[in-house]
């Protein structure tokens, strides 16, 4: 298959690597030509490391690099059967690029967007042929993270989701099919992991390091919410939260954090700027969490209850089937187990009681329960 990639950032070049590894001929385009050169040099370094670690052979590296070409303009995609866009999360910029792209590709070329939060229907509606448009959402880093969310719009041709599902399987990925709702599966269900952690810190109930430690030790999460936000980028996480909040007509469940907004304004974006919730400058030491068993239990139960409630609501609304909801959270954000099974393990009654107590304390719709939760309890 001939594949075009628009955007030569970390995600774009990562998707290019995945496609090229699976014997596709790939063309990578970026409005910033220097970025494409930087990205292809970075790809060569990445592959060299994989050869050094004996993850791939030198011959495979040569094959992958031979499969990747630099496109200097969008008309270089004229022979592509699939084009995946992976540029800035801005609807106006994306639709402008798609409008130009349609002038250069055939009517049969599938156009996909790697957007993590923008409505696929709203993007596709701007195309001449919206039936060939679909969401293909990889997770960062694309070569390592196995999950891919496939999101058909209301206008997408019915068989296209299944076709992309099988293509992603052929590429060695774990695909799931999701409804076109804000945040899709992962970015919708995962919002409380960050949002409730931020709320706990904003209220001076615990410190960021205590919240992280509680989720690692009691929940067996690989990273706590603050470490993960620093890794993702505090600004990126805030942007996704804001998009989901607005797209749900300001539903209080997804309300962004003022602390996170101030961090973004101060350019305390995490690892990429050297400082976020924690300091990553040379010689800086991470603060040690002051352990408190009762507090840790409170933190864990509050955050996990919010997460399980979101998963149950996604099940109720048919955002995806049960298997895909479980797979998405385990493969997309490395949760130690599926949230629906975790709810059964803890007991849906206990989850319901926790949320009811939070609602009684705060009197906020943020803590309303999914109508399905009580039935499961």
What does this 3D model show about the protein?
With 377 residues, this protein is α/β, with parallel strands linked by helices. Helices cover 51% and strands 10% of the residues. The chain is built from 17 helices and eight strands. The protein has helices at 10-21, 33-52, 58-67, 91-101, 120-124, 160-170, 186-189, 191-202, 208-219, 225-232, 234-247, 258-265, 293-316, 322-332, 339-346, 348-362, 371-376; strands spanning 2-6, 25-29, 68-70, 82-85, 110-113, 133-138, 147-152, 174-177. Strands 3-2-1-4-5-6-7-8 form an eight-stranded mixed sheet. Strand 1, helix 1 and strand 2 (25-29) form a beta-alpha-beta unit. Helix 8 (191-202) runs antiparallel to helix 13 (293-316) and helix 9 crosses helix 13 (293-316). The radius of gyration is 21 Å and the shape is globular. The N and C termini lie far apart (49 Å). The relative contact order is 0.09. The mean pLDDT is 96.
Give the number of helices: 17
Kindly report the spatial arrangement of strands forming the biggest sheet.
3-2-1-4-5-6-7-8
Q: Determine the structural class based on helices, strands and strand pairing.
A: alpha/beta
**What fraction of residues sit in β-strands?**
5-15%
- Which term fits the overall shape? globular
Query: N-to-C terminal Cα separation, in Å?
Result: 49 Å
Please tell me the overall pLDDT.
96
**What profile does the largest beta sheet have?**
8 strands, mixed
Question: Total number of β-strand segments?
Answer: 8
Task: Give the topology string: H per helix, E per strand.
Answer: EHEHHEEHEHEEHEHHHHHHHHHHH
Spatial extent as radius of gyration: 21 Å
